């Protein structure tokens, strides 16, 4: 119908729009074939997005293990803070029941720390074995960035565990010192006299104070003194048991010391290489800045030289060309 109207209005000539509509399918071909046609051979598929961690599954597993060890170390740190708090609170305890409660709670915390520290030590040893296996792979051998990363992080975790175990040993020494002070104060409170070193050593070693306080029992009454005797005995048992449990952590401290010292030289070499790399990068940056300055300066001098050459050429050619120009005129 449109073609007929167009032919009537345009003296029988087909409309351009109709002609283009008729000829467009012929120029484009089959529309289904065009829609499903493959892309040109010279077009490349877009590159895949990089996966986190560089796509290296071994490094992803390594960092997952590192995160677990850091979480364990944080748990050990919290338990150490709890032990210090309980120890400070126990120094003011004067009743046997209160001291026994602190004793049981502190023993439970130390047992948890021992279990956690052994787990952390085992995980660090597994990291060492995983690092040795990874060093056999391509691009991860000795001296590679991956090997340096693994060694540095693992050694740092070992050092942190060693430092935490050393803090538990400091707590053990502080328990002994504070226990001696508490016994000395209790002796003075009961007898009114300052205890000599021999008496203090006997009380600390045995915890038996009833024979020492015989005179005070006759003067002040047996019941009141027996409470102090029982509290000293309970405190003695608590300190001895805590020392025994802390000695187990001391063994872990010694094991970590051996592992850290074994890698001490390797860590020193890595730190030296890192410091040298930092210096090298800094010198490279300074050299690049100077090179840019020299490049700008050389361009400036080149332009000045070119202008001078042009001016000299003009000064030489003008006297030569001017008589020729006047003679030609």
Automatic annotation (TrEMBL):
Q: Where is this region: Disordered?
A: 1-59
Question: Cellular location of this protein?
Answer: Membrane
Q: Where are the transmembrane segments?
A: 301-321
Q: Where is the T-SNARE coiled-coil homology domain?
A: 229-291
Q: Which residues form a coiled coil?
A: none
What CDD domains does this protein map onto? SNARE_syntaxin1-like
Tell me the GO BP annotations in alphabetical order: exocytosis; intracellular protein transport; vesicle docking; vesicle fusion
Keywords of the record, alphabetical order, are: Membrane, Protein transport, Transmembrane, Transmembrane helix, Transport
What Pfam family is a match, any one? SNARE
Output the superkingdom of the source species.
Eukaryota
- Membrane protein topology class: Single-pass type IV membrane protein
Q: Name one GO molecular function term.
A: SNAP receptor activity
Q: GO CC terms on record?
A: endomembrane system; plasma membrane; SNARE complex
- Main location group: membrane
InterPro entries annotated for this entry?
SNARE, Syntaxin, Syntaxin/epimorphin_CS, Syntaxin_N, T_SNARE_dom
Query: Record's family?
Result: Belongs to the syntaxin family.
Name of this chain's protein: t-SNARE coiled-coil homology domain-containing protein
**Species of origin:** Micromonas commoda (strain RCC299 / NOUM17 / CCMP2709) (Picoplanktonic green alga)
